[in-house]
Design a protein that fits this description.
Layout lengths: L13 H11 L11 H5 L4 E7 L2 H7 L3 E5 L2 E8 L3 E6 L2 E6 H7 L3 E7 L15 H13 L14 H14 L9 H10 L14
Helix pairs in contact: 5-7
């Protein structure tokens, strides 16, 4: 049943929601003129927008901006019962059902990119971002591989990416794009804000 008395007040301008989101990353931008996502590039964060299901939202496990009832909010936490939304200094807790009744599937978010990252990593690529990928996968796989430079994205690395994608429920295409790299950061103990961190033992 929908709670008709549920009132939530968000931002009319998505820029204000971006500032809320970056605060969860521990960042505040003094420059109020430049677009927040331009400023984020300087601290290795990249913005993206996409359409997601509830399951994908949970799998991404990062703060994200959503558009509910013609207003912008930042999701700061989710658990099996509730979704916590932020808008400036206001906080709202919705049940999962209340949230899903209002959620159109669109999200905006930022994520931590590998060094030198420009586009999804694929077969025959090379550079610092491929070195990073190989080292992170080795750590996740429990291997003690020396950190190497000049690594090429070989068919062997592609199969390791596919194996990881399968394990986390992603399409195993062997291309390390945003969702794959976000999941690698989650497993790789990167210092990133999580939606579910407080819900884990």
């Amino acid at each position: 049943e929908d709670d008709l008395n549920l009132t939530i007040q968000g931002h009319n301008d998505i820029r204000a929601a971006w500032y809320d989101l970056f605060a969860l990353w521990g960042t505040a931008f003094a420059d109020q003129k430049t677009a927040p996502c331009e400023l984020a590039k300087d601290i290795s964060l990249k913005c993206m927008e996409r359409q997601v299901s509830w399951q994908e939202l949970q799998r991404i496990d990062r703060p994200m901006i959503v558009f509910l009832e013609e207003q912008y909010f930042t999701i700061s936490e989710i658990n099996h019962k509730h979704v916590t939304l932020l808008a400036g200094n206001k906080q709202f807790e919705l049940t999962r059902i209340e949230f899903l009744e209002r959620f159109d599937g669109r999200i905006s978010m930022s994520w931590r990119i590998p060094p030198n990252y420009d586009s999804p990593l694929k077969l025959y690529d090379r550079g610092p971002e491929v070195d990073w990928l190989a080292a992170k996968l080795a750590m996740i796989e429990g291997k003690q591989e020396p950190i190497e430079t000049g690594t090429t994205f070989t068919s062997l690395l592609k199969s390791r990416v596919e194996k990881f994608q399968n394990a986390v429920g992603l399409e195993p295409d062997g291309v390390a794009g945003p969702l794959t790299l976000i999941n690698i950061n989650s497993f790789g103990r990167e210092n990133v804000p999580r939606l579910t961190a407080d819900d884990e033992d």
